[in-house]
Records
---
Amino acid sequence: HLLKKIEEFDQSDKFILDDSIYAYLFDLPEQKFNPKSIKIEKNSLFEGLNFTEYIDKDSIRTHPNLKNRLDWIQNNFQEDFTKQNVTPSAEFENIKAKEIQNYYENYIHNEEYTTALLELMYEKQNHSNRTDLDKYIGIIFTKLYEGRKSLKFNKYVAQVDANDKNINKQKLLSFLWSLTNDELKNIGEYYTKKATN
């Protein structure tokens, strides 16, 4: 169903990371996880100000609500074309397998370590059967450790913004900033060893 695909795509950036995934991944035998490292203090920029939202009723009347629009689409566009049996070619399957394999390598190549970590943690939380995830966690933490040593850590890890709506990202940033150099190194080494065993 095409509308379901659109809804899934729209919701794709709204996945929830459970706090327990931090303890599961980063409570190592020689290094304990501190739950306080993912706590975020909210502070409102407009605390104490009263705001009355202005709504232009004429503008609202000219736009049909979302439910009516979706009903109209479902009624006017039949889905027969989605029921066709399409078999992917061998070339497509090869490209798909290669892309899945290179997914995290692309993030690492582009130095988007926090995005890669969020995706890795989400995949680990959902009990992925991929065996290479530990390797990528090790690579990312090793890169972050090297970045901290060469004073480039803030290039890879943004500052925590408590007012940002993406709570998963803010918790991860808070966690990464709370780690010492040795802790970054330990996590990197732990997951690198785990991946090679």
---
Amino acid sequence: MKSYFSTSIPTFCLLSIMAITSGITRATKSDSEWLAAEAKALMETGWWSNYSRAENHCTWPGIRCNAGSVVEIDLGGHGLNGSITPQIGALSELQILNLSWNSLTALGLLTNLTHLKKLMTLNLRYCDLSGPIPPHIGKLESMVDLDLSQNGLVGPIPSSVSSLTNLSSLFLQSNQLNGSIPEDIGGLTNLVELDLSSNRLSGHIPSSLGQLSGQIPSSLGQLTKLESLYLHHNQINSFIPHEIERLKDLKYLDLSNNWFIGPIPSSTFTGNKDLCGSIQGFHPCPSSPNVNRERNSKVVKHNLLIVILVPTLLFFVSTFVLVTFILFRRYRAKTLKSDSSPTKNGDLFTIWNFDGKIAFEDIIKATEDFDIKYCIGTGGYGSVYRAVLPSGKVIALKKLHRLEAEQPAYDTSFRNEIKFLAEIRHKNIIKLHGFCLHNRCMFLIYEYMENGSLFYALSIDDEAVELDWTKRVNIVKGVAHALSYMHHDCNLPIVHRDISSNNILLNSELEAFIADFGTARLLDPDSSNRTVIVGTYGYIAPGSAPSLSSYLFYLVLSILSFCCLFVSNYILE
């Protein structure tokens, strides 16, 4: 017997040591495998792709461990994209998960978090989440702080939220949640903060939220615009705070069915608007039918007032607009009428017979304020400029020189040209598009003649070659037709008094046009009046004042110089 025990004891001790050693080995191996599994789960999220699995994951950014296990992940504002990966669900010791201010578009994968039985804080604020809140969120039994605010969540608030009995704060504001607030949400007895603002919720606030207890806070007196205060059927066990007397706009107050103690001071209620009841100093409240009748009467009066005021206001506004429009039209017509009549020193800018609009600013811009580089010639009393309008139309501008504009004779010539060309309508007489009579500058707007004057065409060999005899005869005929029209078809004959090759212009088709009517005048056959002799040197009839007979001399001389390629100066010499 003794021998048996002496042999068994060492054997037993050896077996015990082996068993303990084996258990420790298995425990060490189990812990090692667990840490490796955590590191693998974290790596598979893709959020720590720059780190090696061989490294201690507890040192990675945003991770806090306790006894080698991950208990907190804080990656707020790290620019994460995609979804909440299912690997997070393997972190069974996780207590805090903050992924706020990222772009995690899918909330449905919260299913992966339901295995986190120890998760106490979940912050997904500003994560661009969309879709409904999954019902299985109620499986996070240890949840204390839940923040899903500032996202695009839709649908109703799941009733499973009421299963989070440890919940202290719930933030769902600034989403697109609809439906009603779950009735069971009042069962969250530990709830301290609840924010459901900026959503599309409808219906009534659940009565279960009204099971209040404790004291009425004195800060309630700061709600100076409060009109209704209902605190009935609660368990409020305190004095009625004196701060309530600051609620000057309070109309309805109900503190019934509570555990209030102490007196009701009259100063707490006096001075308020429309308070009534059986309390001393208050007038009795009207019965319900009277109250309804009074409300209905106010509604009817309000609607009647709207029906009367709106049409009346519309009538007066319409009348005012109509009268203003009529007065404006009259003022504009009067202004146009006054502007259309010439004035000696006024501002006059008139355009007619033109397929577009010309503004004074366009003229100045097109010629760069009558720069010399746009000057294409000089007439009897001014310079001629070429201008291209914004529409692409090319026009000719005859501008009276500033010094000449101050001389009455040139001013008269300028007005004469406007007067005669405004009345003349002939295909061989230059067309006047408009004019500007202003103290700053005076100019005429003409149709542009591409080939310049006849004098220019005859004085350049290349241009003269193009004028064969047929074209020259047509030019003479055109000038003759224009002169015949001026002498015989006008009410009073118009004497040009300066027909020369300089004043005969040619267009692109080499058709002739008479221009420069600055020296023209009406000829009254019954009048013996004669003016001074005017005209271009070399084209004036010898010893003759302006008349129809002397006018023929101008034409014959122009024809001779035209046909013989001589200028008038050579003939006279």
---
Amino acid sequence: MAQRSRDAHITVRVIAPVVRTLRKAGIDPGPVLRSASLRVEQLGDYDRRISMGRASAVWDLAASLARDDAFGIHAAEGLRVRDFDVLDYALRSAPTFGGASRILERYQRLVHTGASMSIEIRGDQLHFLLRPGNAGEVSSTLVDFFVAAWTRVTRQLFEEPVTWNQVRLQRPAPTDPSEHRRFFGGPVSFGQTQDEVSTDASWAERPVVARGSHFSPADPSERSAAGSPPNDPSLTDPSGANQAVASPTGDTQVVSSPAASRQNSWGVSSDDNQTKQNRGDDVMTGRGTEQWFAEEVRSTISKELSGGNPCAGNIAGRVGVSERTLRRRLQAAGTSYQTLLDERRYDAALRYLRDDGCSLLEVGFLLGFSDSSGFARACKRWTGKTPVELRRQTRAKQRETTASVDLPSSPGM
């Protein structure tokens, strides 16, 4: 069952699982790609978009060629490390399943327009819903993939994988629904008015377990197998993963590459170490508790960025004060919440934009923006440039030298 639209789009990377699944079945994906005027080398570009209708047509054609009513399910089962790299990192920064669900909801908004995932608690049930919105030709095969992919992602977050109490799909029942039942672990209702899955509401408060993940971006062998350059120094030589850039305060500082930053985040981050050192310096030199407080807020903002909730009220709660007190104490320290947020985002943006493996969409996601337009507006405000222009400039300067980086010394141009 499809929903129509004229302007809904989705990242072209949604076609990559189609190609892999067809190849695994011994089927040439060429005709499917040609039907959408696509080439294999284009499928790694997260920033390239195609219409939702075009993407759905590709999925339906692939399912037809494979003669597989559960093609979307099987494609989700074949998802690889690189498909989850940035998302997996962000999800594991969430304290609870409810928080991780909100991150997943935000990620979906960045990946495609039109159809959207939403999360609701009704009574004692937590519901994940795929809402059509202005979605374009979202085929049953692609909906199967979306719902199965959500399931695959959430199962990685707990020692005891989440189980669905209900799986309700709009699509007609396949001739043989056994694959759907096998994957979801129970009955599946077809021909429904809404695409949704649900579980006990108590899951919302369950803590996320940052256990050794099959999708951990910290595993160099997995990243290489997934397509990262095998000689990438950021994966094999930590000392080569650092670069000098101009900080928002105007000083030159050494920062870790995005790959190194992601790896640090699985253990003790460099931000955490620096914050602890700053706190100790404050106590020893008597520079004052307000500067100390500002450092605590700065560190907390860094941790909250990928979680997508770096708003002042949330940060205030994390550091144990009211929002009003947060703003007053930061003013006493000679700064403001917005200044600290912009500094953290700007610093991180420069690092991520140097990473060829981090798309502009993913950069915006890691910086805590709810959509790509928010990241674009921020770049314009900081530097007067679009994200594409800023990425081009940072890479050009990286090729020349790290001795003098001609980037704005601080955000807020």
